[in-house]
Design a protein that fits this description.
- This protein has 20 helices and 13 strands.
- By secondary structure, it is mostly helical.
- Strand 11 and strand 12 form a beta hairpin.
- The longest helix has 16 residues.
- It is elongated.
- The chain binds one RNA strand through strand 6, strand 7, strand 13, helix 12 and helix 18.
Length: about 525
RNA sequence: GGCCGGUUCGUCUAUCGGUUAGGACAGCCCCCUUUCACGGGGCAAAGACGGGUUCGAUUCCCGUACCGGCUACCA
């Protein structure tokens, strides 16, 4: 027998989000693994919007998803936004195409109509709930006790259908069969069909559930590899069976169930709440819930570089087998392989995330950072109009910034005089002698012809010696005069950049503050 | 409860039968630095447990424990 090897087919993967809110870490990582795998194999990355639940529709969520992908630089080859040969890419717009497959399954005896109302189901669950079985399933046992085309006569079913009675289509899980498949990450996984319930395939409103839609669309869109979170593992047998019942087994994609991203403390899936509670972002970008108005901050607005965000996500559950942890997207594409994705979930570590961002800021050139830094500064009320100066400042301070916002504290004083001076740190040891020194220093600076760090330091030391003072006890006062506080790069580098006039002004300003205290 | 999955330093992880079990983040110490960082050096820190298989198991198998996921006309 000749098989068409999947390696000969063009790789096509899809990310299929439900537009119900902000995109969280785990979601972006799923996108990333899809993207890396596709690009690694010269394939296509498709985004398909799974908006089959009309009750959960959230305004703006879809646009948010695309904005996030754009920020991360993970551009889809096909999507509702980018178009493509298999449009539409929104399941709500594909609604009409699902019913025929549901009917096909019913006609073949693999699925059936169920007329139970939500109240009926609720009652059933209440009735059969016991301590041993806290959540009774609509399965091979219970379906015989419900109102469906298995328990009802053919005539009754026909009459109900003709009367337009609301109904769903459910898969008829076979009794005691073993369904197994090879997961790219976990190897062989198998299930006994008696343990799986009769999932709804087509809802009463005519929309498919995820179970039907994912199979139909993956087939129609010629998806070759299906990656999703581990939470989908339990429903995999339903999907495998559907591929089989629809007669598409030969084209079924390879599956990979990605490990979950866990909360840093305790256990369990990472949620938005954990971020709020522990003080770090969980969403990629800011998200405001249109209904509640609740705002959630994202990694972007928190001051992360997209390269760092992508990098840290890739290394959460994957590594290339070496000690290398910092990768560009191109390096990730080159190094990526599903075989090296972990099975176990990973607790999210915000400290490590900060480290990645700092690494990326350190490695970026001043020119790379300039626009963003200027923007960050502007948002904080500081105008950096001179690009030349801005570049010098960035080079001087970037290794002390872990978040973009750090450029505000580390960089503002280059462009405007500090609004506050930490004089409390120098006051106790302040003397007339020091006062005299700074008066003379400011005069000397004022009459300087050259204005470079090296010369300024030389002048500073000469005058200090003349006053019989150690440079060490004068450095901190000078720093506070120029910076406002005990931080920042070398004082003379700072003086060199802010210029003669500003340097002298700041020295005199603090001198007068000290005098009045 | 049932089903499925997972388990190496506090955290992320390397190891694809033989290693002093390696690296990174965080922590601590030292050096560099007349601030804060960066950088350099060092310390401390791990195979859940019990059985097998094997000359030899962190690695392969089984059981137990623990953790997680799922158990909707949600994805």
């Amino acid at each position: 027998m000749i098989y068409i090897c999947s390696m000969e087919k063009k790789v096509r993967v899809r990310f299929a989000p439900s537009p119900t809110g902000g995109l969280h870490l785990g979601g972006v990582r799923t996108v990333l693994f899809n993207y890396l795998f596709a690009k690694k194999h010269g394939g296509d990355f498709i985004v398909r919007i799974e908006d089959t639940d009309q009750t959960r529709f959230v305004e703006g969520a879809e646009a948010y998803i695309f904005n996030t992908l754009a920020w991360c630089g993970l551009t889809p080859d096909e999507s509702p936004l980018h178009g493509g040969p298999y449009a539409p890419y929104r399941q709500s717009e594909r609604k009409a195409s699902y019913k025929q497959y549901a009917d096909q399954l019913v006609n073949a005896g693999f699925a059936y109509y169920a007329f139970d109302t939500p109240e009926d189901l609720e009652q059933m669950r209440a009735q059969y709930k016991t301590d041993e079985n806290p959540s009774p399933q609509y399965n091979h046992l219970l379906r015989t006790k419900m109102r469906n085309s298995i328990t009802l006569s053919e005539a009754e079913v026909a009459a109900l259908l003709a009367a337009g009675t609301p109904h769903v289509v459910r898969i008829k899980m076979p009794l005691d069969e073993t369904v197994s498949f090879t997961d790219m990450i976990r190897g062989e996984v198998s299930f006994n069909t008696s343990q799986v319930d009769d999932k709804v395939l087509l809802k009463a409103d005519g929309m498919p559930t995820y179970h039907l839609a994912v199979v139909v669309d993956d087939y129609l869109m010629k998806i070759t590899h299906a990656f999703r979170g581990e939470e989908w593992l339990p429903s995999a047998p339903v999907h495998i069976l559907l591929w089989k019942y629809l007669g598409w087994s030969a084209e079924m994609p390879e599956w990979a169930h990605l490990p979950l991203i866990l909360k840093p403390d305790g256990n369990g899936k990472l949620s938005k709440r954990d971020g709020d509670r522990l003080g770090f972002p969980v969403f990629a970008m800011d998200w405001t819930d249109p209904k509640t108005g609740e705002k959630t901050t994202g990694f972007k607005e928190r001051g992360f570089l997209p390269q760092a965000f992508v990098n840290l996500l890739a290394l959460l559950g994957w590594n290339d087998g070496t000690d290398n942890e910092v990768f560009t997207i191109d390096e990730l594409i080159a190094a990526f392989s599903m075989e090296r994705v972990h099975k176990g979930g990973a607790k999210f570590n915000y400290e490590k995330a900060l480290w990645y961002n700092q690494e990326w800021i350190k490695r970026a050139t001043a020119a790379d950072l300039a626009d963003q830094v200027a923007e960050t500064l502007a948002a904080a009320g500081t105008t950096a109009s001179n690009r030349e100066v801005l570049l010098r400042v960035i080079d001087l301070v970037k290794e002390r910034c872990t978040l973009m916002a750090d450029f505000v504290t580390q960089g503002s004083f280059f462009f405007m005089s500090p609004s506050e001076f930490d004089t409390a740190s120098i006051q106790p040891k302040w003397t007339d002698q020091k006062n005299m020194f700074f008066i003379e220093l400011s005069k000397a600076f004022e009459s300087s012809i050259v204005w470079e760090a090296h010369d300024l330091e030389k002048t500073f030391k000469e005058i200090a010696a003349a006053h019989d003072l150690k440079p060490g006890e004068l450095m901190l006062p000078l720093r506070i005069m120029l910076v406002g506080g005990k931080f920042g790069p070398g004082v003379f580098d700072i003086a060199a950049i802010i210029g003669k006039e500003e340097t002298v002004n700041r020295i005199q300003k603090v001198l007068s503050i000290l005098e009045h205290n």
